[in-house]
Structure formats: structure tokens, C-alpha cells
Amino acid sequence: MEEYKYLAIVEWGKNYIAKEHLQPNDRFLSEKELCTIHGVSRQTVRQALKCLENENVISRVRGSGTYVKNVAVQQSEQPKRVGVISTYFSDYIFPQIVTGIERVLNDAGIVMQLSTTHNQVYEEAQALRTMIANGVQGLIVEPSKSALPNPNMQLYREIKEQHIPLVFFNAKYPWSDFPYVAMDDEAAGEIVTNYLFDCGHQRISGIFALDDIQGHKRYGGFMKSCIAHNIRTAEKDVLWFATAEKSYIFKYARTKLLEMLVNSTAIVCYNDELAVNLLRFCRENDIKVPDDVSVVGIDDSKFSTLCDVPLTTVHHPHKVLGERVARKLIEQMNAPEDAQDDVIFHPELIVRDSVRSFERR
Amino acid sequence: MEEYKYLAIVEWGKNYIAKEHLQPNDRFLSEKELCTIHGVSRQTVRQALKCLENENVISRVRGSGTYVKNVAVQQSEQPKRVGVISTYFSDYIFPQIVTGIERVLNDAGIVMQLSTTHNQVYEEAQALRTMIANGVQGLIVEPSKSALPNPNMQLYREIKEQHIPLVFFNAKYPWSDFPYVAMDDEAAGEIVTNYLFDCGHQRISGIFALDDIQGHKRYGGFMKSCIAHNIRTAEKDVLWFATAEKSYIFKYARTKLLEMLVNSTAIVCYNDELAVNLLRFCRENDIKVPDDVSVVGIDDSKFSTLCDVPLTTVHHPHKVLGERVARKLIEQMNAPEDAQDDVIFHPELIVRDSVRSFERR
DNA sequence: TTTTTTTGGATGTATGTACAAATCGAAAAT
DNA sequence: ATTTTCGATTTGTACATACATCCAAAAAAA
């Protein structure tokens, strides 16, 4: 079959190891033996052995002999790697989401490569490039600044061309056609606002993130509820902030905030993190929650139960979402052109103590 | 310099390509030319060329000649990967530690592969094996059940043999000789206990984890302080628990706990997580902290400020520790036989409201 | 019994020769 | 002008020999 003698010996050697059930570190035939078996010169045998060594089938030890290498190493390839890129992962609800992802990937024998963007598109580009160069078999990405124009479109195109499966979570870029897994953010905004109306509130303000789609959608739900209740919410009743400045708005938008707190009976917050900070702001300014003003958050983070006034909020599936994202990716890796549909979790209201009810329903 | 002729030619060839500024696909010298240049046989030249081919420096074409390969491919390799294996990463102080690690690795252009063991040695084995098979260039590991016999010794030996740099954090296995980065746990235990004595407490109990070295060391510091203050702490004043059962001890050790709370004026807790749970247990049993009993924790986790009674505890360097671990590993990757020393952070007492002072000092 | 030395056998390096197979350009034939 | 043929050159395969270096077990010495 083989044209060349040394290649014939290579094949013969592989079969020999299999046939004789040689275990790792078992001794292989010596060069001399192979010479007499095949009736060739030692040089030819050596060339064959060199090949087998390059293929990691055997290892040769000067003065000792030739030995069989670990066959397991040979057949069981490298475990798959998947890149996970999120904005943060140490705070808020992110640890739980990432834990969910890690659990599913781990069970599937997949290694997770983690990177964070701190919601910066430049870091997102960096992370994506590194992951691609690293040869990941799949990507799970939480978009950064999903509501603003994104300079990384070209990178995502490349990913598409290279047929690397990708799933977004929490948000997706409007121009991309990768599937995503998220909570129904519009519904979340609507549910909390509806609840406030149900409790008898009439003057309701909102604070939303301006640079991500979640902020826009939650605002959308808020407005939808307002319109449904015939409340014409003026521009001044909504405060927009950039997520990078989430901690500073209490300084530089102080007057507007205080005005809102006086003119409103309830505030819808973009998320629990903001809501908790707002609670502190209220305390510092002698505004009582929920007596003077009611506050609602979204996401049901851990802090929502630990703060002074347990927060009425909307449950975010956290870990379950993480698990679903990871499963979604695995589905895609197995059946690339299948399972392109999005997964949307329907939110659920969690009532705690931060909303005053006007006893009217 | 080189002992063997063919190796000398390999080196000479690399220099030649550099010196002559040969571009990719430029023609290299023929075998015959090399023979006359170096005054060796053709076989020897061929052996050298074989090496250069294996190193991806040249490519040979039968009947045509030998050509220079893309040098760019050669130098800009895949980004490095480092495996991070911790017990948990979504709770407690772990997110901050991992964030520190991630930040430093990221700045160094290194990709982080994360895996958690849930403090199970089997999962640790699994993670280590996967990481090794994956060809990581370094490992950062938080030992699981560091105080109990560990079945993964063989794996760590393999890592040593393969010269994969490894740094432990928080704890290290006593039988291993990898460096580690941690807080001085004994000092931490001593500092809180000393503080209790300073506040006038005499009957002090402790609750410690039995399966990790941190638990043993913190217990050691606790005992050291007791002995220094001439308090003979009986066995019944110490409650040991397995970390896997950290949530259940309030059920199955209920009577012993209540007894301890009655007989003592202060309790030293293994860490803040336990302390916070103890606070809840006290509240449920109408025991007032710090009026009836004082509680101290260790680690200065986020929960220590958020719970009902802000916790007196010891500061753990969290993020700084994470950063230091990562830098330590990078040092090791650059200078393998250097930087084998441990890094120990000295702890610092954080006084809050969970300790009653008997106004005696 | 323990330690040291010897020795046989294994792989590694180096050289020589011969022929095979592929490439490529120049000369020859169409 | 195009195609074919041929030959020089180059790398690939194969065999033969000699010595080097290392390992490990057997033999000898302490």
C-alpha cells in the first residue's frame, strides 16, 4: 500500500501498538529488532521512528530504548474553550449569572475563558480579538453600551464569517443577528410602573440609563404604563444617566433629583443598584422611604433585601438566565444553523417595603 | 559553542536569515551550498534543515529548494492562557479577588480561564486535568479542603514536572512547594481575640472551619491569644464545622451553640459569612448583639457592613491580594526559578458595632 | 550487604554513496 | 508562437559504516 518503506513502518508500528495492547510507558521494539523484522537498514527504521515521535506516539530515550506514549493524550483532544465577555462580573447580579454559565459549561466539559469590558467598547474589542486569536469554539457576550453606535461591527462580522457560535445575554446589538437571552425589560418597566399606579400613585418619575438597550426598554415600559394610565409624563420627570457616571449623578444632578423627589410620590429606578443609591441619597436629605416617596428597582439583586428599606423590585432570573445562555450556546455549537431564536424571560414583581400604598385600588 | 555540528548549523541558519533580512518565501541556501560552507556531509545539513523545518523557520519543496517561512507567524503566537481555579467566585470576597486577578492578567494580555471547585477535591482534580490538557501557561489555585489529605498530589507533581508555573492563594497544601499569597490567618485570629480581651471579655468562644488551613490558622491565633491572656479554653468552647455544612450547623449544633452563647460574652467566628449567619441565629433566639453577646468576624466582606449590626472584623486585602497573586504568577512565568517566596499580607482590625466594651482597659 | 566498576545494548551523531522524484528553465520540435 | 523534450538542479528515500553517548543490569570489589 505504502509507497515508501519508512511510511509503511510507521503504519505498521501504530497497528503493532494497538494489536499488542501496549500501555503507556511500555517498551517498544528496538531499532535493531525492527531492522530484522522489516529487512531494512537502521537509517530507514530511524526515519520511521522519528515520524512516530513527531506524532507523539512514542518517545525515545538515548541509551534506554523506545517507549509508548500516553495513547489517551493522542485520542482525547483538547477540551473545548468558550469565551465569556461580560461588562462586570464581581458586582450586582453578575456573579450569579456567570455562576450559572460556568455550571453548565463545566458539566459539558467546556472550559470558560472570562473577560470583562467594564462597559467600554474598546475593552470589548480587545476581549473579542483576544478570544478569536485564542481559537475559542464559542462566545457568550453581554454587549457594552448597546444603545449607542458600536465600532466593533466589523469584529462581529468576522465572527460570523468564521462561523464561531455566539449568544448575547441581557441585551443585543440591534444590527446583529446573533440570538440572545434576556429578561423582557420593557415588561419589567411596565410591571413596576403599573404597580405604582395600582397603589394610587399619580406623580411618578423615572431614572434610566441612556447608553444601553436595557435602559431604553425599561424606559419604554415605564412610558407605556404612563400612557395607559393617561399620565402625560413631561421630559422633566425622567432623568437619564450614562452608566459610567452612575455614582456621580447624585452630585451633579442633585438639584434636579431633589426637585423630582419633591414633585413625585414615586420613582422608578433603572435597576436595584441605582435604587439603593437613591435610598441613601434620600436618607442623607431627610426624605423618608416609603412615607415621603416610594422607590422601585428592577433586577432583584442581593442588595435589594439587605438595604435599610427592603426594595420592591422585579425578579431577574440571574442564575437560570446564565444557565440558559450557556445551554443556548452549546445547542448552537452542536447544530449551527438551528436554534437561532431568542429566549425571553418574563419578569415577576417582588413586593417588599419601599412602596407606600394609598389604599385605593 | 554548540556541541553538535547540526545544531550549530541550525543556529547559524537562523542568524543568516536575520542578517540577510530574508523575507518570507525568499529562497534559502541549498543543501549543497550549506555542505561546502560548513564543510560537513549532506546528511548533517539535512538533519539541521529538518530541525529548522520543525521549528517552522523554513519549508522545503522537493525539486525546487528551501524557502523562508513567515517570520511573523513565528513571533506573534497565541495569547497566553492562565487557569484560575478557586473554590467559589460568585459569593463573599471571591468576586473581588478574582476581579483583581483578572485586571492584572488582562493588562498583561493574558487570557483567564476560570473554574470553580465548590471546595470539592474531585472537582479540583477535574479542573486541574482540564487546564493541563488545555495547555495553560500558568495556574492560580485556591486549594480545596487544604487541611485534609488531598488525593491530587500526583497531579501537582505532574504540574511541577511539566514546569507549569503555579501560585496558590488564601492557603497552600503543606506538602507542596509552590509559592502562595495569603493573609496572615493566624495573626487575624489573634488580633480579633486580643481585641475582645482588650474590651474586657473573659469568656470567649470560637467557631472554626475544620477542613481548611485558614480555619486551623485562625484557630491557632485564637488559642495563642487565649493562652497569652491565661485563659484555659476548654474543648467545649470551640465549635468545629465542615465548610460544606456551614449553613446547617445552626440546626444540628443548635443546643451546643445556644450553650456557647449563654456561657460566653464573645464569639470569634471563622469568617464574616459565618458571623452574619450567627447574627441571624441570635436574632431568631432573642439574643442581642452586642448587648448579650459580642461577635467578631474575619475578612471584612461586603456583608459585614450591610447586616443589622455592622460587624467588627479584620480587613482582608481582597482585590489587592488578587492583583498580587496574578503579578506573582507573571513573575514566575518570566523567571521560573526565581520568586519562589510567599507573600503574606498583614491583617488589620476594623472596629464596628458588634463588640460590647466593658470599659476596662 | 553495599558500593563501585564493567559491560552489553540502546539511541544519537556524522559521513559516504546511490538512486528516486519533483521542479524549472533552456533547447528542440511542432 | 506554442508545445514538447531534455537535462541540470534540488530535495527525498534508502542503505552502509563508524563512533559517541547514555542507560541499566550484571559483575566485581569493598
Give an account of the 3D structure.
- Two copies of one chain form a homodimer.
- With 361 residues, chain A is α/β, with parallel strands linked by helices.
- Chain A folds into three domains: 2-76, Arc Repressor Mutant, subunit A (Orthogonal Bundle), CATH 1.10.10.10; 79-182 and 319-344, Response regulator (Rossmann fold), CATH 3.40.50.2300; 185-316 and 349-360, Rossmann fold (3-Layer(aba) Sandwich), CATH 3.40.50.
- Chain A contains 14 helices and 14 strands.
- Chain A has helices at 5-19, 31-38, 42-54, 71-75, 94-107, 121-133, 153-161, 185-198, 213-228, 249-252, 254-263, 272-284, 303-306, 318-334; strands at residues 58-61, 65-68, 81-86, 111-116, 138-141, 166-169, 180-183, 204-209, 238-241, 266-269, 294-296, 313-315, 343-345, 348-350.
- A six-stranded parallel β-sheet of chain A has the order 4-3-5-6-7-13, with helices on both faces.
- In chain A, helix 2 (31-38) packs across helix 3.
- The longest helix of chain A is centred in the C-terminal third of the chain and has 17 residues, at 318-334.
- Chain A is elongated and about 100 Å long.
- Chain A starts with a helix and ends in an 11-residue tail after the last strand.
- Chain A binds a DNA duplex (30 and 30 nucleotides) through helix 3.
